[in-house]
Amino acid sequence: MVRVRDLVMRLASGGRPVTVLDGVSLQVETGEVVAVTGPSGSGKSTLLGLVAGLDAPTSGTIEVAGVDVTRLDERALARFRRETIGFVFQAYHLIPTLTAAENVAVPLELAGVGDVEPRVTALLAEVGLGARGHHYPAQLSGGEQQRVAIARALALAPPLLLADEPTGNLDSVTGEQIVDLLLALNRERGATLLLVTHEAGLAARAGRVVALRDGRVVSDRSLAAAR
Considering the entire predicted model, what is its pTM? Predict the structure, then answer.
């Protein structure tokens, strides 16, 4: 599903180049649950953003579902991202002036899907918010907002789900519920899940853990075989 080869990302900071990722290679198979861990500044979120096509790397290649995303122009990249990738952010990124249902409907409407209401209702029910669709983000708890964000990410049934610190703004109990939900969606939908986390407990529930440090992969271990 994901093939990253010799990925390098350099950014300018104070007029000097800073290497954020330095020769990262990573392969994620269809249906896998992979956690990317590491200290702050190790390049975790940068890697996820590059896989999503939100930024372009300095060098290296990124293939998602057999497509080299580094070679797509902006229009093709936007279409590919919409059809292939769902992204869950730490800060939810819901539109505050839209209800939960309207937030979930956004990607469907942008894709030109007709009669979105039944689809939105089913998605909200799937994440346990069947009765909260008419509420605005400010009327929802952090966990509920993250559930809305997950429903939105799943709206077009993407084969790849990316999650950047999905429990980072939540208390431990709510965070566990969100992890349960993500893993259940992986099992039920067969979607590949690549997530970034600094929480050891969350990483331990993945099938595999890839650790970054100073922009390099320092370990890549399967947890599924140990269970």
Answer: 0.89
